[in-house]
Amino acid sequence: MKVMVVGSGGREYSIGLALKRDPNVSELFFAPGNGATPWLGQNVTCKDYEELAAFAKEKGIDLTVVGPETALVEGIVDIFRAKGLVIFGASQAAARLEGSKIFMKNFLSSYGIPTAKYIETHDANKANAFIETLALPIVVKADGLCAGKGVIIAQSKEEAKEAVADMLSGKSFGDAGHGVVVEEFLDGYELSLFVVCDGIDYKILPAAQDHKRLKDNDIGPNTGGMGAYAPTPLIDDVLYKKVEERVIKPTLAGMQKEGTPFEGVLFIGLMIVKNEPIVLEYNVRFGDPECEILMPLLKTPASELFYKAATQNLKNLEIEFYDKYAIAVVMASENYPYGTSKPSEIIIDKSAHEALEHTHISYAGVSLEEGTLYATGGRVLLCVGVGDTIKEARERAYLLCGQVHFAGKQFRSDIAYQALQYDK
């Protein structure tokens, strides 16, 4: 099977790693890929999705897997399907669940799916009036795609109103902020749950927990994610069942009723409040860094999962996972997330290779120049550890962190801290 992965980050590198070890995969392509993906397959550069679909047709690509949300929101799946190509991902219409927070919140409300009390508006006066009714803190979200950064948790009503004004004016997030969602703050703990869907049937993946804040103890600015682990002990069979009955089933039924069946990855951002699941947001793709820990846990060949989901055949798949834990620690550049950093050569100690059976690196913001790999992005790479316990996986991941070097590297030292109290 010839497979192409669309995207260039650590998420796509991790999907590529899973496909590289897949016995069904004969050739692997990345569009556009990053500086390290040529170690796994061939990088492809095309000017637009039409040209990329033509390339897939010409090369006889059997399956295309879409990583980033932007490509889905822009309609890559529709373009490929119009040419008779098999592609794993959400249609442009279904991708509105992530592409518009206003659409998503109204969808949740329409189908009785639990979510925070909110208002969606393009009118600052209406937003400000609603802000006056809420207790602190207050959550303000830009409507469109903001690479995971379009959420402000305001500690005062004045700050919330200022966030609304900045978003609606285009000052904060450009066109993505011309509509806003203001909602109550929920006090609980967050979980990430991923569901692979084919429009009707679905497979639930192990729940994960992401660490969004830049620094230890969850302080500092929000980022795209500084680390994650799975499976998390913060969810049990009872809570899984609540999510399945109250969230997953009504979401898929609602999308069918809307005439836009959901196919691809449904990423459910949950807040658990007094053991009750409340939806914070939907995304329509694997999370990053959650994907980097889910792929090593997947025992079923990745190509089978993606292909059967893309061809409405998940009912005939028995999905299996390794009885292990995985932890990923993001290594970021010096000035992340405030600005760009100077390129820096990545050096990996030779001793790192001794532990590769249980650890690996997923590369993200990197470039390759004359055989040397450089850190050139914000989130540069992820050190992934796998073990029989959370503690073992964590120790392996951090051991690898100590063996990877580039100027100005920064990373959190407390990934999975909430789960350690459950670890035996």
Automatic annotation (TrEMBL):
Cofactor(s) essential for the protein: Mg(2+); Mn(2+)
Keyword set includes ATP-binding: yes
Annotated metabolic or biological route of this protein: Purine metabolism; IMP biosynthesis via de novo pathway; N(1)-(5-phospho-D-ribosyl)glycinamide from 5-phospho-alpha-D-ribose 1-diphosphate: step 2/2
Domain ATP-grasp per the UniProt entry, residue ranges: 105-311
Keyword annotations: ATP-binding, Ligase, Nucleotide-binding, Purine biosynthesis
Catalyzed reactions: 5-phospho-beta-D-ribosylamine + glycine + ATP = N(1)-(5-phospho-beta-D-ribosyl)glycinamide + ADP + phosphate + H(+)
Superkingdom classification of source: Bacteria
Pfam families found in the cross-reference section: GARS_A, GARS_C, GARS_N
GO molecular function: ATP binding; metal ion binding; phosphoribosylamine-glycine ligase activity
Annotated coiled-coil segments of the chain: none
Entry EC number(s): 6.3.4.13
GO terms, biological process: 'de novo' IMP biosynthetic process; purine nucleobase biosynthetic process
PANTHER family: PHOSPHORIBOSYLAMINE--GLYCINE LIGASE (PTHR43472), PHOSPHORIBOSYLAMINE--GLYCINE LIGASE, CHLOROPLASTIC (PTHR43472:SF1)
Family: Belongs to the GARS family.
HAMAP family assigned to the protein according to its UniProt record, in alphabetical order: GARS (MF_00138)
Protein name: Phosphoribosylamine--glycine ligase
The encoding gene: purD
